[in-house]
Design goal:
The complex is a heterotrimer of chains A (about 375), B (about 300) and C (about 300). With about 375 residues, chain A is of the alpha+beta class. Chain A is built from 9 helices and 20 strands. Helix content of chain A is about 25%, strand content about 35%. In chain A, strands 6-7-8-3-9-10 form a 6-stranded mixed sheet, sandwiched between helices. Chain A has a 5-stranded antiparallel sheet with strand order 13-12-11-14-20. The model of chain A has no long low-confidence stretch (mean pLDDT about 90). In chain B, about 70% of the residues lie in helices and about 0% in strands. The relative contact order of chain B is 0.12. Chain C has about 300 residues and is mainly alpha-helical. Chain C has a single domain, classed as MetI-like (MetI-like fold, Orthogonal Bundle). The interface between B and C is large, with 107 and 114 residues. Chain A: GO terms for molecular function: ABC-type transporter activity; ATP binding; ATP hydrolysis activity. Chain A: This is sn-glycerol-3-phosphate ABC transporter ATP-binding protein UgpC. Chain A: It holds the Pfam family OB_MalK.
Chain lengths: ~375, ~300, ~300
């Protein structure tokens, strides 16, 4: 059953259109991540689901009920904010039970719920403190506690980890994932961090300019990005998108890419539907190669020779930067295999290579 | 990075530089010492100049009149007496009434207290609306209110006088309260708006999701966080209204006047030999409430002052 | 569902309803009253308002009044000196206080306390201090400098400068407070960078820090101008406009024309002149402040 249906939803401020007919539908227990750069409309969409922004067109349904005109409190949702939004003058315990107090939940019941949430989040010892006496991570937990006690049908998270330092961010990410597994509630989560999207989501909606670019499972978004924009946004270092020409010889599909000061490189063994191959044969394409698809060649066929420009060791890997097809390309290689300023033969794993149409920048299927 | 820079020996240590954390090298030590001396001498001299009028006021008010006319201006009182204070408080003549400042002091309190409470309360809710419940035109409303802070009151004296007599409040304390509240809300709205702008909007959103409404959010979430700005607003309004003279002299007369008007009467209308000790005692009585507020809560007073200079 | 819809509609209007009374009060007491004053300024009103139309006659009369010319000239002298000295002293105090001095809090409080006093109290105090027979002049005379004269307050040529002295005493602390806040807002690393380049401290202040105080300077200039234009109580308490009309200012002129000389039309005309002067300074300032804030 779908818990949340966003049906051709639009949002405009005067003549400025920030969301253009967005449609997303997710099932109970799903973890939907709205991913995109700032200004893409993801937070606006979240606020509209919460009832904090009006809806200019279309419908939002929660558990089958149209909520367009319902106030936030009637939507059966809870929300965790980027700034945590803890009420500064209330203790942690008062923060967590404020909503219940407004709904007239009896005191004993409130205390029980607070205790349960505090146990789950391990913040029992903090219950009588004020938010200003808490660390960032602790505030984050309290904000989640406030959401949990509502037992909502839908959790909304608005960039909840962006105010934490790197180490804590990873810890809290795990915590949120654990919470999702434990409570099994449906979550909508907004972030600009593609790693959060990859690690947490069951479904990712990549957004840009008020339009959903792709709505898929994270691995699909990573492996088969719908367009060049998604390809570049998801993954770090981002996918190399290299101009080339498609050549088809019988069943064999290959891409020919210009190399500076060398004969053109040919990448063969590309998997492509017969139909698409016929359509793009002999025409320019954009070749999408993730950095990890490169490897140092041991004399096998189908290799390309490049001049390594810069080498950046990261520890587990080394990033090698070179020119290919007139653009800068990054390869993720095992450490200490290449040196800057030398010519190197690289092989490409073509099983996960993708092609884009240069005009529309859409994935060629 | 910054740490590394601050521990570098500066190539040309500036004399008297208080900003350099590292002490200057020995040969230059003398110059630095002279610089510090200059700074302190200037600051102390200026402090003395600023304190002098207060000192003169206080000592004069504690001297008998003969001593004053005998030529003691700056010195400590030789024949210490509180008579001047007693006369200023309860006997000095204001116009034809020789009641001292006491009833006028009470008038000022009767004006100040309701006016401060009302204008601060209204300003708080206005600031809340203009930041957390923005509506189309909210900026225009704020701009209209803001100009009211800088209104030269001469431009409204005549219509206000006519209006007060039209609604039967001319010359009365409630009338003066109304005037102070009307123009006070411009300032208080500015204070609260600028303060609430710094509160994250997420706070209101979280409370909405929790099911709180317009007034609930104001009472339970916003107001408890605003104690500092409430203090600023109250102090500012208290000082402004207590010190007001123009409205007092324009819209009240006789027994309903605030203390500033009464003080000006004492000082300007005395006939015969001028009783400077009583003048100074009266000035002190009129000045003490705001001075006390300043001493107790100076920090908040400064915040009120600089609130007008948004970029200060 | 309808109930909820209605309640959300009410919720949308509630803020506007609550702010409406304040807006109404301000629209009436500020804007309507300004217009009203404007109307009176083109009538022949004397003791009470009369609503006939006499064109700009009152403005012509105003500018033909020698006393008004004195008032305008005085305002010019007073505000120029008041601003220049207050800014100079305020800046000096702020810079010196910013050198990590001891008892900074106490000194700051001393420079600023006059701001808490009523101008009436200030005027009364300075009237006594400047008293030629018993005040500072006498103190210096008694110290042995028998020919020392400091009787400005009784001298029509010099009396306006006593208003400047008292005004500066009252308000320079305010300039100090804003400059100090500005100095505290300057990133220390800028100064360190300049020191590493070998710049001397006075040079750093002249070339780098004082130019960086421009926003604070703008605020000080605007707010002190506003204080100068509306100065009324200070003059009344210190000199009562005298000797003669030597310390008349537009604010005192307006008051006495309207309430003492039964020339309401002329008074209204002078109020309109004052308002236009203030508006010419304040409106662009507010406009730029609001716009910058929206951008930031």
């Amino acid at each position: 059953m779908s818990t949340l249906e966003i049906d051709r939803v639009r949002k405009s401020y005067g003549s400025l259109e920030v969301l253009k007919e967005v449609s997303i539908s997710i099932d109970t227990g799903d973890f939907l991540v709205l991913l995109g750069p700032s200004g893409c409309g993801k937070s606006t969409l979240l606020n509209m689901i919460a009832g904090l922004e009006t809806i200019s067109g279309g419908e939002i349904r929660i558990a089958g009920r149209v909520v367009n005109d319902l106030s936030p409190k009637d939507r059966d949702i809870a929300m965790v904010f980027q700034s945590y939004a803890l009420y500064p003058t209330m203790t942690v315990s008062q923060n967590i039970q404020f909503g219940m107090k407004i709904r007239g939940v009896p005191k004993a019941e409130r205390a029980k719920a607070v205790q349960a949430a505090a146990d789950m989040l391990q913040i029992t010892h903090l219950l009588e403190r004020k938010p200003s006496q808490l660390s960032g991570g602790q505030r984050q937990r309290v904000a989640m506690g406030r959401a949990i006690v509502r037992q909502p049908r839908l959790f909304l998270f608005d960039e909840p980890l962006s105010n934490l330092d790197a180490k804590l961010r990873v810890d809290m990410r795990t915590e949120i994932k654990r919470l999702h597994a434990r409570l099994g509630t449906t979550i909508v989560y907004v972030t600009h961090d593609q790693i959060e999207a990859m690690t947490l989501a069951t479904r990712v909606a990549v957004m840009k300019g008020g339009v959903v670019q792709q709505l898929d499972e994270p691995q699909t978004v990573y492996d088969r990005p719908a367009n060049v924009y998604v390809a570049r946004f998801v993954g770090s270092p981002s996918m190399n998108v290299i101009p080339g020409t498609l050549r088809v010889e019988g069943d064999k599909v290959m891409a020919v890419i210009e190399v500076q000061n060398r004969p053109p490189a040919t990448i063969s063994g590309i998997g492509l539907s017969r139909d698409a191959a016929a359509r793009y044969a002999g025409r320019p394409v954009l070749v999408g190669i993730r950095p990890e698809l490169f490897s140092v060649a041991n004399g096998q066929p189908g290799t390309i020779t490049v001049d390594i420009d810069v080498v950046e060791p990261t520890g587990p890997d080394t990033l090698a930067v070179f020119q290919l097809g007139g653009v800068e390309v990054t390869a993720r290689l095992p450490p200490k295999q290449v040196e800057a300023g030398t010519a190197t033969m690289l092989a490409v794993d073509t099983s996960k290579l993708v092609l884009f149409d240069p005009a529309t920048e859409n994935l060629i299927k | 990075m910054a740490e590394a820079i601050s521990t570098l020996p500066s190539p040309s240590p500036a004399p008297g530089s208080g900003r350099v954390t590292k002490t200057d090298e020995t040969p230059r030590y003398n110059r630095a010492w002279i610089g510090r001396l200059f700074i302190y001498a200037t600051l102390i001299a200026m402090a003395a100049a600023y304190l002098m009028p207060l000192w003169v006021m206080v000592t004069t008010s504690l001297k008998p009149l003969e001593e004053i006319y005998g030529g003691s201006f700056i010195g400590f009182p030789q024949n210490f007496t509180l008579d001047a204070w007693r006369v200023a408080w309860s006997q000095a003549c204001i116009g034809t009434e020789c009641t001292g400042l006491k009833p006028y002091f009470v008038n000022s309190l009767l004006i100040v207290i309701p006016a401060v409470v009302l204008s601060t309360g209204i300003g708080a809710i206005n600031g809340y609306i203009l930041t957390k419940w923005r509506f189309p035109g909210a900026n225009l409303v704020f701009g209209l209110l803001l100009f009211g802070c800088f209104l030269p009151y001469q431009a409204i004296l005549i219509p206000m006088a006519r209006t007060l007599s039209l609604i039967g409040l001319a010359g009365s304390i409630p009338g003066l309260i109304l005037v102070h509240v009307s123009y006070g809300i411009c300032f208080t709205t500015l204070f609260f708006r600028n303060y609430f702008v710094t509160l994250p909007d997420d706070l209101t959103k979280a409370a909405l999701v929790d099911g709180a409404g317009f007034f609930r959010i104001f009472w339970s979430i916003i107001l408890p966080t605003s104690i500092p700005i409430i203090v600023v607003s109250c102090i500012w309004q208290f000082t402004q209204i207590w010190n007001d003279f123009l409205f007092g002299v324009s819209f009240t007369s006789g027994a309903h006047s605030p203390i500033t008007v009464a003080l000006n009467n004492i000082v300007n209308v005395t006939t015969g030999r001028k009783q400077y000790n009583i003048d100074m005692a009266a000035a002190m009585i009129a000045g003490i409430p705001t001075l006390l507020v300043y001493i107790v809560a100076g920090r908040y007073f400064v915040r009120g002052l600089t609130a007008g200079a948004v970029k200060g | 569902m309808n109930a909820s819809r209605q309640s959300s509609r009410l919720a949308a209007w509630l803020p506007r309803l609550v702010v409406a009374p304040s807006l109404l009060i301000v629209l009436v007491t500020v804007y309507l009253f300004i217009a009203w004053t404007g109307v009176i300024s083109v009538t022949s009103s004397k003791f009470v308002p009369v609503y006939d139309f006499v064109g700009l006659e009152q403005f012509a009369r105003l500018w033909a009044t020698p006393r008004w010319h004195i008032a305008v000239e005085n305002l010019f002298i007073f505000s120029t000196l008041f601003l220049a000295i207050s800014i100079g002293l305020g800046l000096l105090m702020a810079i010196l206080l910013d050198q990590h001095v001891r008892a900074e809090g106490f000194l700051r409080a001393v420079y600023l306390y006059p701001m808490a006093l009523s101008f009436i109290v200030t005027g009364t105090a300075w009237k006594w201090v400047l008293n030629p027979g018993l005040g500072i002049q006498k103190v210096v005379n008694d110290l042995g400098w028998a020919t020392f004269r400091f009787d400005w307050i009784a001298d029509p040529q010099m009396a306006i400068y006593t208003v400047v002295i008292a005004g500066v005493w009252q308000s320079s602390g305010f300039a100090m407070a804003i400059f100090l806040a500005g100095l505290r807002g300057i990133d220390n690393s800028v100064i360190k960078a300049a020191q590493i380049e070998g710049a001397s401290l006075p040079l750093i202040y002249r070339q780098i820090i004082i130019p960086m105080l421009r926003p604070a300077m703008l605020s000080v200039v605007v707010l002190l101008s506003y204080i100068a234009i509306k100065s009324f109580d200070l003059v009344l308490a210190l000199t009562n406009g005298g000797p003669g009309a030597a310390t008349e200012l537009p604010s005192t002129f307006m008051f006495s024309a309207t309430f003492r000389r039964n020339q309401m039309g002329v008074g209204a005309a002078s109020a309109v002149m004052m308002l236009m002067t203030v508006a010419a300074i304040i409106v662009p300032y507010l406009y730029s402040e609001l716009r910058e804030r929206n951008n930031g």
